[in-house]
Structure formats: structure tokens, C-alpha cells
């Protein structure tokens, strides 16, 4: 919980990871390229005083994660969104079993989402059924640009992807988080294109599609899709740190999102450990749309409370303390094109 000027904020960090990118876990040059690209994002978009050294960044472990999120970072609940990347790392990039164990050891504080890859076809479907039962999955994180042998990505609207989405429906996995946005070396930008969200969001209205990184740099494409699909949400991972390095750019991103999809479908994420939540939350609560950006309405305290936690809490049925709730229900997604136009 974060408190400032008499206002209390329930915080859900909707995109965190526990990774191991040390040299001994790198399978090839691409493992080093990937973590180096992450580190460049970290050091170039963070305030200088919160930049980690490189070795810590490659492996920080469970106790550092707990401290950064729950002791120092104001976070009430956090959601693991693993990237597997088995073509680049011997034991995988995201430490899935360690993250699952940490979730079980901290009931009420963590949710573990897993991953699937439609290119594993029938064998992957059977594994998904086992994972859903063993892990108690409510959500998954998909990386459509992940390499698999000769393949350098897949589309969500492919026949095999559709079979996996239909299996998610059967298994009660409702929240489909998808990395759609900035490329990461050596992955390909076009494999992160947001366009395939459009078809599956229309065809699977009982699933929620949380587009991580709000499609950046394709924000406009994302907004034009999400405004007409009430089951599409925007995750602010990667967008958030621009609040420090390029605050006017961040204001434009946020202003566009509020205009097109409204305040109930935007989720705060630090993208830990690319960034840490403490400074992002402090800056966001203090943030305001600059007065010269006259086409965007000022952001209200109630909107900040929804974005920082109440919207994600609604998606994951989290029990928000009464004193941290709003009089009106957050996360009430409705089909209303360009919701902000009525402001």
C-alpha cells in the first residue's frame, strides 16, 4: 500500500519476473544479447540512484525480489509473467519452478502465471493441462517472438494458437498476457506486432487479453484495436519508466490510453527486475498531464488508484481491503469506443 497526501493506494504489480541470465546459464550468444538489451533499458531509463550493477542484474534471487517489491516497493500483490527462452538459456530465462515455489510460500502476495507455445502442438496442449492443474493457473504470459528452432515467432490467430486458447477456456485460464511491443535483441520486431490480438479478442470474448507494453511503438494500432474490443487491456510495463526520462512522452502515452480505452483497462507494471516499483509508484502518484498538452484531460486520483492496482485486482479476483477501494467498482470494462471523448 502506498499513501500520499491522505490518499491510500492498493498496489498490484502486474508484470514481474525472476530470471537467471548468468553466463553459466546462457546457451549461446543470444542469451547474452538478450540480457544485455534488458540491462540497457534498465540503466538508460532509470534514475541514476536506482541503477543496479550488471552482475546483480543477471541474477538477483528470491529474497532480493521480495524486498524490492514488498518491503521497499509498496506492492500489495504481484504477478509473475515468465519468459522461457529455452533456445537462448540452458535452464530457461524465467526461473519458473523457483517462482512457483515463492508464490506458494507467500500466499496472498503473489500469483504465478505460466507460458505455452503453440508450436509444441499436441504435446504442449497435454503439458498445459498438467501445468494448469499443478500450478492453479489463472493466467498465462505469451511471447510471440520467441524462437523455436527455425521458427522466429508465431501468431495468436493461427490454428494451433486457437486450440490453446480454447483449452484455456476449458481450464479456467481467463487472463492472456501477451508481450506486444518493443523488440529485444535478438528477437524480431514484427513478431511482436499487435495486429493478431484483433481477431482472437473478437472470437474469444470470455478471455481477457492484456497487451503488455501497450503495443509500443505501435501504440496507435493498439488503441484502435482495444477501443472496440472490451476484453483487451493495456499493461504499462516499459511505458512506465518514461515518466522519469521523457515525462511528456509518457503523458502522451497515458493520455492516448485514457482517451481510447478509458481508466478501467490500464494496468500498472514495473516489469521487475528491468525496473523496480518504488520510484515508479512515487512518480506516478505525483504525476500530472502537462498543461500544454491541452487535448488530454488531467488525470484524477481515482484514475491513478484504478491503474495502480484496482483494475488488476478485478481481473484476478483479489480481495482489496475496504479502505483501499473506490465507491464505484474498478475494472468494469465496457464496450465504448473512445471512452475519453466524453470527458
UniProtKB/TrEMBL annotation:
GO MF annotation, one: hydrolase activity
Alphabetized UniProt keyword annotations: Hydrolase
Domain Amidohydrolase-related intervals: 13-318
InterPro entries xref list: Amidohydro-rel, Metal_Hydrolase
Protein name: TIM-barrel fold metal-dependent hydrolase
Amino acid at each position: 500500500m502506498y499513501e500520499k497526501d491522505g490518499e491510500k493506494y492498493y498496489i498490484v504489480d502486474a508484470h514481474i519476473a525472476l530470471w537467471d541470465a548468468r553466463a553459466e546459464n546462457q546457451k549461446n550468444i543470444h542469451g547474452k544479447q538478450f540480457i544485455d538489451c534488458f540491462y540497457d533499458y534498465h540503466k538508460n531509463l532509470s534514475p541514476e540512484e536506482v541503477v543496479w550493477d550488471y552482475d546483480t542484474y543477471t541474477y538477483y534471487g528470491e529474497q532480493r525480489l521480495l524486498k524490492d517489491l514488498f518491503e521497499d516497493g509498496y506492492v500489495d500483490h504481484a504477478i509473475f509473467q515468465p519468459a522461457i527462452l529455452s533456445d537462448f538459456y540452458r535452464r530457461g530465462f524465467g526461473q519458473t519452478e523457483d517462482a512457483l515455489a515463492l508464490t506458494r510460500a507467500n500466499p496472498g502476495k503473489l500469483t504465478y502465471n505460466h507460458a505455452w507455445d503453440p508450436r509444441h502442438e499436441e504435446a504442449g496442449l497435454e503439458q498445459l493441462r498438467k501445468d494448469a492443474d499443478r500450478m492453479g493457473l489463472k493466467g498465462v504470459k505469451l511471447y510471440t517472438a520467441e524462437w523455436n528452432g527455425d521458427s522466429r515467432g508465431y501468431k495468436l490467430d493461427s490454428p494451433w494458437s486457437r486450440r490453446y486458447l480454447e483449452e484455456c477456456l476449458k481450464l479456467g485460464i481467463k487472463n492472456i498476457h501477451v508481450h506486444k511491443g518493443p523488440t529485444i535483441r535478438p528477437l524480431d520486431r514484427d513478431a511482436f506486432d499487435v495486429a493478431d490480438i484483433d481477431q482472437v479478442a473478437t472470437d474469444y470474448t470470455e478471455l481477457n487479453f492484456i497487451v503488455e507494453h501497450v503495443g509500443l511503438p505501435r501504440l496507435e494500432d493498439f488503441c484502435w484495436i482495444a477501443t472496440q474490443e472490451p476484453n483487451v487491456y493495456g499493461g504499462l510495463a516499459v511505458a512506465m519508466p518514461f515518466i522519469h526520462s521523457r515525462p511528456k512522452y509518457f503523458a502522451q502515452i497515458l493520455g492516448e490510453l485514457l482517451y481510447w480505452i478509458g481508466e478501467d483497462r490500464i494496468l500498472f507494471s514495473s516489469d521487475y527486475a528491468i525496473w523496480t516499483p518504488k520510484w515508479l509508484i512515487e512518480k506516478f502518484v505525483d504525476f500530472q498531464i502537462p498543461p500544454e498538452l491541452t487535448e488530454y484531460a488531467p488525470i484524477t486520483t481515482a484514475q491513478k488508484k484504478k491503474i495502480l492496482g484496482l483494475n488488476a485486482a478485478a481481473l484476478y479476483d483479489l480481495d482489496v481491503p475496504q479502505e483501499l477501494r473506490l465507491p464505484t467498482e474498478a475494472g468494469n470494462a465496457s464496450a465504448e469506443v473512445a471512452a475519453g471523448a466524453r470527458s
